[in-house]
């Protein structure tokens, strides 16, 4: 332990306290935690359909499988729980497991509890679910159509919430403005993809009717109430704990809570603790993602580019169920809808729809990317329309420095800022002039090079009442006010004078322990290693509130702020104790170098440990006005976070940072691949507490945003099939795609947070996607109208804009093709094979179950159940994913021995398959030509594995069927090795060839 502390730690890039354990593999994640003896494993049966009614769930065979303790269906869950709370007034039920129908690929249908995960997974494949497929809807605009498939019949449609807002006088502003300029924006889904997926350990105590759940849940802990209500127990009968470490989250681990309910019920039914760790395929297809949004935004604009009003029309797609805290993504930014701009008038229409996709939840940036992509693309459009410099249009509309604190049209209170100065510093220090030179040189050489800009306000410390803006003032009045953002921190001192800090904020790598140690060590004049910080949560042990958790960039302003207050209060008490022992006044007490001393006489001092432990060893000597110095717990909530007003004004967040970005993008002239040439990002996050970690947060947000801009998208087929089911299809950025950004800072400390800090963890996820899109638009069309851009901006999307459409081949070549259709992911193909057998022999073999068993890839047996109807048990695999299928095969349109139509359907744990093929038999000089044409649909997990893997695998599987048929026929119709060899040599397969 150091003897002296010579300078303040806060504001310095101190070595991270967390790193020695994390970098040496000693982190304690949920899979590292010890479990009770007899803990069982949990596995899920998931829907292969985007939308289907559940006719039946047969668990008999699975229940008899080795090691299985229980097989639990949606009806079992519903009988022991209540529908999860929905954040709007709507006639709809929301269960953690499908009951009557499935509404997205990956939705849990049953769960198996067994002695280990391997046995549980094997048994899950034996659960037979009889589905009646229903039409699906995946487009939010199409979901609003009168004839759209309805996900929840009780709702009567797919529109679950609609509200309109009016601030100022937008109608008059539009009437007076010489220009009305608008743009339509489609913002897609993307996700966070942390290294560690969901994990839950749960047990049930029947004597107490109480649940004990450990999960890598990040908060907000308002979800604790949702889970307790669903489990039908009071809050003090649900103990929720988190592990000390979490392998990333970025918002998405909020969505683990339905599995907390399911694991609790599984433990209750099984009579033993259960554990579940999500695999990557489950996480991609069935956890939560960000919302996708369709936006129409229009501006009333003066001749010189000043915006006087905005008109927003937003359609938010929240997936199959509206799960808490949704539709929070739509309303978190409600106070910030004018961004960094001084716009006094605004109209907003918000519609929330349900579609056959995974439910949505928190995702880094949480509502910001969707808002700012529309707003900043509009700024670019305004400049183009009026023929003005884009940067000048931004400058003319910025909120002036003298206006702070600034109240936005929709009610947010921007606490501090100097946007124009920050922008000017970024332009100068980031050398925008040099970037213009690069662009002009590239264009002179005929290359596509563009520069993009983005201005955003980054909110932090969410007002817990903002989500109630989704309700009308009358509905809010009946429910009672909801607002605030309470943060908690507890500091305690043990009998040896050691200091411990406990906060209810769950870190996922942000460095909580380091920053809080800096805060407390500075207050007490101690070295950092004298302070221990605990940041896991136990709701039966710790001080917490419904706002607790790690989300909405609340750590530095709120959690560290509450710790600052607690340390100051405890320090003031210790100063009074020390003053009596040093015979000085409390105002003359100094804390430095591990000692407490008189300001005017350094020799008059005592060790910190001796003074701090007084309440333990000698409580009778404490001054009369000091109750104790053992522990100080602070519950802090800022008064600025008021409930929504009767006029729907809402200060949706406490503090507001500022970001100005610009970048240069070049598009490869041969491949159309976009590349970042230079990226500059200026941040004002208030007071910087730890410079290196702030820059780390910026880099992390930037990397995630680059992925959203160039690579990442949750893709669904028209039938609801999921197309991004592996990391071969959901592409993540690597160091090859993410350049080093130029990071700049401008500090305007917040007057409303104890440390003057604002949040910084999400901003580039808000600013970078649209900055890149604006640069791409500039590269493609420097003047005039820009092409419509939908993220991710890939070479495949840009190539037609640069090179035009691809010419059709002069001679089409038959081959296996795949495309998305209303019926599913469709594969078509054709080919022929010549075999040494007569048509009659081939025909008999096609009707023979033994032949079908021999030629169907992966067959475990074929049973003839009718004259032309067969059932088969088949194992198929695509890439790393294999599974067992029950297949039905029908022969129809028989024209013996000339032609037959072979059709079939297969359903298994990996998904669904179906289709038909027409087979014709023709005599040749060498025997019989087998010609075939086929069409098939594939859905579920198999389809999700595959944009890249599936197409090739389909050729292999279908081609192998006909190759094997040819071999079988050739070998059975001729005698001798020479004849069989001739049959193989003469075999010709066109299409279906891998």
Characteristics:
994 residues; alpha+beta; 28% helix; disordered C terminus
Major sheet strand order: 29-30-36-35-34-33-32-31
Structural class of the helix and strand makeup? alpha+beta
Low-confidence stretches: 1-5, 813-824, 971-994
What percent strand? 25-35%
Distance linking N and C termini: 66 Å
What percent of residues adopt helix (DSSP H or I)?
Answer: 25-40%
What does this structure look like?
With 994 residues, this protein is of the alpha+beta class. The radius of gyration is 32 Å and the shape is globular.
State the gist of this model.
The protein has 994 residues and is α+β, with helices and mostly antiparallel strands.
SSE blueprint and pairings:
Elements: H1 19-23, E1 40-46, E2 52-58, H2 60-63, E3 68-73, H3 74-80, E4 101-102, E5 108-114, H4 117-124, E6 128-133, E7 159-167, H5 170-176, E8 179-187, E9 199-205, E10 210-215, H6 222-230, E11 238-241, H7 257-270, E12 274-277, H8 280-286, E13 292-301, E14 307-317, H9 328-331, E15 345-353, H10 368-386, H11 390-397, E16 406-407, E17 413-414, H12 419-429, H13 432-444, E18 448-462, H14 473-479, E19 487-493, E20 499-503, H15 512-524, E21 531-534, H16 555-582, E22 589-592, E23 595-598, E24 601-607, H17 608-612, H18 614-617, E25 631-636, E26 653-667, E27 674-684, H19 691-710, E28 742-745, H20 763-780, H21 795-803, E29 817-821, E30 824-835, H22 839-846, H23 849-855, E31 859-864, E32 869-878, E33 881-895, E34 899-908, E35 911-924, E36 927-939, H24 941-944, H25 946-973, H26 977-986
Parallel strand pairs: 1-12, 10-11, 14-15, 20-21, 27-28
Antiparallel strand pairs: 1-5, 2-4, 2-6, 3-5, 7-15, 8-13, 9-10, 9-12, 13-14, 16-17, 18-26, 19-20, 19-25, 22-23, 23-24, 26-27, 29-30, 30-36, 31-32, 32-33, 33-34, 34-35, 35-36
Helix pairs in contact: 6-7, 10-20, 15-16, 19-20, 23-25, 25-26
């Amino acid at each position: 332990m150091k003897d002296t502390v010579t300078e303040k730690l806060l504001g310095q890039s101190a070595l991270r306290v967390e790193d020695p354990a994390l970098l040496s593999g000693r982190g304690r994640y949920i899979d590292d935690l010890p479990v009770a003896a007899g803990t069982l494993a949990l596995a899920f049966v998931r829907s292969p359909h985007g939308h289907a009614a559940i006719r039946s769930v047969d668990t008999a065979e699975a229940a008899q499988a080795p090691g299985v303790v229980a097989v639990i269906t949606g009806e079992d869950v519903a009988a022991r729980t209540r529908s999860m709370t929905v954040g709007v007034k709507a006639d709809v039920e929301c269960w953690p497991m499908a009951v009557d129908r499935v509404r997205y690929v990956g939705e849990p249908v049953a769960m198996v509890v067994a002695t280990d995960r391997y046995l549980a997974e094997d048994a899950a494949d034996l659960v037979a679910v009889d589905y009646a497929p229903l039409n699906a809807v995946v487009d939010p605009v199409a979901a609003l159509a009168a004839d759209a498939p309805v996900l929840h019949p009780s709702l009567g449609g797919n529109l679950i919430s609609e509200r309109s807002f009016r601030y100022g006088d937008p109608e008059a502003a539009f009437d007076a403005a010489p220009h009305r300029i608008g743009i339509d924006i489609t913002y897609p889904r993307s996700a966070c993809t942390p290294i560690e997926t969901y994990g839950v350990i749960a047990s049930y105590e029947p004597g107490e009717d109480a649940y004990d759940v450990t999960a890598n849940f990040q908060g907000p802990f308002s979800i604790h109430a949702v889970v307790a209500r669903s489990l039908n127990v009071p809050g003090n009968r649900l103990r929720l704990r988190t592990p000390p470490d979490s392998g990333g989250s970025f918002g998405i681990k909020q969505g683990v809570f339905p599995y907390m309910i399911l694991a609790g019920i599984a433990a209750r039914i099984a009579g033993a603790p259960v554990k579940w760790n999500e695999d990557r395929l489950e996480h991609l297809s069935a956890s939560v993602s960000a919302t996708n949004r369709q936006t129409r935004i229009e501006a009333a604009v003066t001749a010189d580019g000043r915006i006087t009003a905005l008109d927003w029309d937003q359609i938010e797609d929240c997936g199959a169920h509206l799960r808490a805290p949704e539709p929070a993504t739509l309303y978190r930014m409600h106070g910030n809808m004018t961004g960094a701009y001084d716009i006094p008038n605004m109209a907003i229409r918000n519609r929330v729809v349900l579609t056959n996709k995974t439910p949505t939840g928190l995702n880094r940036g949480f509502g910001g990317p969707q808002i700012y992509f529309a707003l900043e693309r509009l700024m670019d459009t305004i400049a183009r329309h009026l023929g003005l410099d884009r940067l000048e249009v931004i400058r003319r509309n910025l909120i002036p420095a003298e206006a702070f604190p600034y109240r936005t049209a929709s009610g947010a209170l921007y606490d501090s800022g100097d946007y124009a100065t920050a922008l000017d510093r970024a332009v100068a220090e980031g050398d925008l002039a040099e970037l213009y030179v690069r662009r002009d040189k590239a264009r002179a050489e005929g290359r596509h090079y563009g520069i993009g800009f983005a201005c955003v306000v980054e909110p932090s410390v969410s007002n817990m009442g903002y989500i109630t803006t989704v309700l009308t003032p009358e509905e809010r009045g009946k429910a009672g006010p909801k607002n605030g953002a309470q943060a908690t921190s507890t500091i305690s001192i043990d009998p040896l004078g050691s200091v411990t800090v406990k906060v209810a904020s769950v870190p996922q790598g942000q460095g909580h322990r380091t920053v809080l140690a800096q805060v407390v060590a500075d207050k007490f004049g101690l070295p950092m290693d004298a302070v221990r910080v605990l940041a896991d949560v136990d709701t039966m042990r710790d001080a917490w509130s419904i706002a607790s958790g790690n989300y909405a960039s609340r750590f530095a302003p709120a959690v560290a702020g509450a710790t600052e207050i607690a340390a100051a209060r405890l320090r003031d008490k210790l100063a009074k104790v020390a003053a009596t022992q040093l015979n000085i006044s409390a105002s003359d007490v100094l804390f430095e170098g591990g000692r407490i001393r008189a300001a005017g006489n350094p020799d008059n001092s005592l060790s910190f440990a001796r003074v701090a432990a007084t309440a333990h060893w000698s409580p009778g000597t404490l001054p009369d006005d000091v109750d104790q110095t053992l522990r100080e717990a602070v519950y802090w909530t800022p008064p600025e976070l008021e409930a929504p007003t009767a006029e729907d004004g809402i200060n949706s967040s406490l503090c507001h940072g500022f970001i100005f970005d610009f970048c240069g993008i070049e598009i490869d002239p041969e491949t159309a691949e976009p590349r970042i040439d230079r990226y500059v990002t200026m941040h004002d996050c208030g007071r910087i507490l730890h410079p290196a970690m702030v820059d780390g947060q910026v880099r992390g947000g930037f990397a995630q945003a680059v992925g959203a801009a160039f690579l990442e998208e949750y893709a669904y087929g028209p039938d609801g099939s999921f197309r991004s089911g592996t990391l071969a299809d959901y592409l993540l950025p690597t160091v090859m795609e993410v350049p080093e950004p130029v990071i700049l800072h401008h500090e305007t400390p917040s007057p409303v947070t104890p440390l003057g800090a604002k949040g910084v963890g999400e901003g580039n996820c808000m600013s970078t996607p649209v900055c890149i899109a604006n640069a791409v638009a500039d590269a493609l069309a420097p003047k005039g109208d820009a092409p419509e851009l939908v993220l991710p901006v890939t070479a495949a999307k840009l190539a037609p804009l640069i090179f035009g459409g691809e010419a059709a081949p002069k001679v089409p070549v038959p081959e296996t093709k795949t495309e998305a259709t209303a019926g599913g992911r469709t594969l078509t193909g054709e080919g022929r094979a010549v075999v040494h057998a007569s048509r009659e022999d081939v025909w008999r073999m096609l009707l023979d179950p033994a032949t079908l068993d021999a030629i169907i890839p992966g067959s475990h047996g074929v049973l003839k159940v009718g004259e032309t109807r067969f059932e088969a048990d088949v194992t198929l695999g695509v890439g790393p994913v294999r599974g067992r299928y029950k297949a039905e095969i029908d022969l129809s349109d028989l024209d013996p021995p000339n032609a037959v139509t072979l059709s079939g359907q297969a359903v298994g744990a990996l998904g669904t398959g179906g289709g038909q093929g027409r087979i014709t038999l023709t005599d040749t000089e060498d025997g019989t030509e087998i010609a075939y044409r086929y069409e098939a649909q594939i859905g579920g997990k198999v389809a999700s594995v595959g944009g890249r893997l599936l197409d090739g695998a389909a050729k292999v599987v279908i081609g192998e069927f006909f190759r094997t048929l040819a071999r079988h026929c050739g070998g059975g119709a001729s005698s001798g090795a020479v004849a069989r060899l001739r049959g193989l040599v003469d075999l010709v397969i066109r299409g279906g060839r891998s």
